[in-house]
Design goal:
Two copies of one chain form a homodimer. With 416 residues, chain A is of the alpha/beta class. Chain A is built from 15 helices and 17 strands.
């Protein structure tokens, strides 16, 4: 099955917008059993769209198109599709009803431009758009180079396209082509690099059944391990993937913090809520980034008390009561300083748990003894306080990110 | 001049990596007078790369390729280029010297795989890679559909590709094709939406000389206005753009905070350093995000004291001394509360300036009187303290971002 994507829009070809649609569409299609061979990005230009459609017809059986179907004049995809399929526009009653409802809910009148969005090329299946006014269009083209090519046109607005892909396009493709059943589970790891991870799980990986594939998906500070099982016996595939995952967990339980779409800040938040415990942070090198991650989770006021970002030694002394002696003798980036920060913040914020960080984020400030990337993270719990040292890299941005993830994972481990 | 981009790599077609290279390359080419017509993304697959090169040759005069030229076996772009150009590999002395130096500087030996990176297709110009080991390859193909097609192969690693584009590829293209001189200046605005901005500068926009184009480039909380002048008289084009910019400034000086690559956090940092003043923050709804922005700037310890993230009313009382009466009567999201937070933080952090925020970021917590998006921002300076109310939208993420940008711009205005 040859599948390709066409993204339409001038904004994608002048660098104004990064083409996140292609990545998301390709991933969803890949996960659903329709691996993508090719992505083409073209301008809102009649000839170029037409040329690309003609080439796509030669190459592929399924062509998924996004962009260029809004109500304004610069959106010319629908017109071009009509030409390509030699179809005229016909008024679609159901589409118009949906548009009327859409505007009525917002207290607005339907304009002529929006009425025209109910004009749909004859012979295509018009796909509902639950969160916008541009309908999707599903064409099946007989004859030609492939017996049966499918072309689907979707909006370019990411959340409208996503809704349509998930609820309309992928289910219809699956119904039509019956790809083998696919089942994916992704284990999220923190605190170990890709190559070390690969070495540690090599034997397990080599013994995976042939129908189960493993993909390493690294991001700064996190490596995702995706297991994809395929086959015709749905129950058996699920079982195989889950068994493989259990074996993996047994080997690297120390690094796995969650699955699929989990984030560390959400997991930590759920654990704190469950246990009725509170959290505060005392941040030096992370400069408020841990607080930002925690407060990006709705409902965090149920467990998060706040943070003291102590960016200078004076503030560490005056607001977190770190002793001037320790700062002088051990330095701000030290076990003692982070532990004192954590303990003081426990009292200051009246919190059960405190994370404290201090490090040399870079690019300046490194020494031979404490090079850029040197980081201490302390954790105060109701029972104890301890600190650990890490040596991260030389990118300020990544050092901040990795310190925050490491700190949240330390807290998670302490909570479970 | 027909220009297209080909990005090669499996990771781009399974959703693992978002294709930021295409956006960056397209923007740079557009800014240099080589607008891009088409982007194609293909897998590390010999046949597909070959097919795409053949189609590109028919369509375009300049074809810029990234990806697939690393040392490992899955990188097959170089082999495929040899086939396409019917060229054999020859050992490039200069390339090998560069590779030897690259490894020597890192205390490593050159492996056989890396030695092979000095094998370059005969007849191409090999382009130096200052920060990696994969050379660029510049091919000129005579005859065929275009008299003279240029194909350039670059690494897929973003920072290596960028360095090569800026220092080698774009200067060579300009030397070869002499596009009209282009001059760009981008004004950065904050605090006004795209449509309001457009209405306010309509008359100015309509009077722009024909050779000067205006582009609106909106991002959450910021609208960039890019002026692009073109012509053969370099000095005159510069003058025209600068004059237009001055007229623009006169009309919307209240919203322009910087130019080109400036960020608010850097501008504010520079102003504070210049004036020898210090800053602290007291954050409720922004939850540490302002602190994170400020501390993402290297050298911020020269002016930034720290932040108190007070996420609960108790912390606002105990650490920022907001009076329980005010919290009860006016609520946490109020003029009085943010002003008290700002003044207290001035003392607590011994800082000249303080930004304080309190708002309902959402999705929960809104009321009829104070719907989600309601936000107060206070600013304490050495001379005064005041607060302003804003009504942002219903996205938590965007409310946090817009509050932070608005607050930093308030501070900037007070500093100038």
């Amino acid at each position: 099955m040859k599948v390709e994507i066409i993204n339409i829009g001038d904004e994608l070809l002048i660098g104004q917008v990064i083409n996140t649609n292609a990545a998301w569409m390709a991933e969803q299609l890949d996960l659903s059993g329709f691996p993508v061979r090719l992505v083409t990005v073209v301008r809102d230009c009649h000839e170029q769209i037409l040329e690309t459609l003609q080439e796509a017809e030669k190459r592929s059986e399924v062509v998924l198109i996004s962009g260029g179907i809004g109500p304004t004049n610069d959106d010319i995809t629908k017109k071009t599709l009509c030409e390509f399929f030699q179809a005229r526009l016909v008024f679609d009653e159901e589409a118009f009803r949906d548009i009327e409802i859409f505007f009525a809910l917002r207290g607005l009148h339907v304009t002529e431009l929006n009425r025209q969005q109910a004009d749909i090329p004859e012979g295509c299946i018009s796909l509902p758009n639950k969160i916008g006014t541009a309908r999707g269009m599903w064409f099946e083209k007989q004859g030609g180079h492939n017996k049966n090519s499918i072309f689907v046109s979707m909006p370019g607005v990411p959340f409208e396209m996503k809704e349509m892909m998930i609820n309309e396009v992928i289910p219809r493709l699956q119904k039509k082509f019956h790809p083998p059943f696919l089942y994916h589970k992704t284990a999220l790891t923190q605190g170990i690099g890709e190559s070390f991870l690969a070495a540690q799980i090599e034997a397990w990986e080599n013994k995976l059944p042939e129908n189960i594939k493993l993909a390493y998906l690294p991001q700064p500070g996190i490596v995702r391990l995706r297991l994809s099982g395929s086959g015709n016996n749905e129950q058996r595939v699920r079982q195989q993937v889950n068994t493989a995952l259990k074996e993996l967990e047994a080997q690297i339980s120390d690094y796995i913090f969650g699955y699929d779409e989990d984030t560390l800040e959400e997991i930590v938040g759920k654990l704190l809520l469950e246990k009725g415990k509170t959290l505060a942070t005392a941040e030096s090198c992370t400069g408020g980034y841990i607080a930002h991650l925690i407060t990006s989770v709705p409902g965090c006021s149920g467990y998060y008390r706040g943070s003291l970002v102590a960016y200078s030694n004076e503030i560490k002394e005056s607001l977190l009561f770190v002793s001037p002696n320790i700062l002088k003798k051990e330095g701000a980036v030290s076990e003692e300083t982070t532990m004192e920060m954590a303990v003081a913040a426990q009292t200051q914020f009246d919190a059960d748990y405190v994370i404290a960080t201090s490090g040399i984020a870079g690019p300046e400030g490194g020494t031979v003894e404490k090079p850029v990337g040197t980081t201490w993270i302390a954790l105060a719990t109701p029972d104890e306080v301890f600190a650990r040292k890490y040596l991260f890299g030389d990118s300020r941005e990544r050092n901040i990110r990795r310190t925050a993830l490491q700190a949240l994972n330390m807290l998670r481990k302490s909570l479970i």
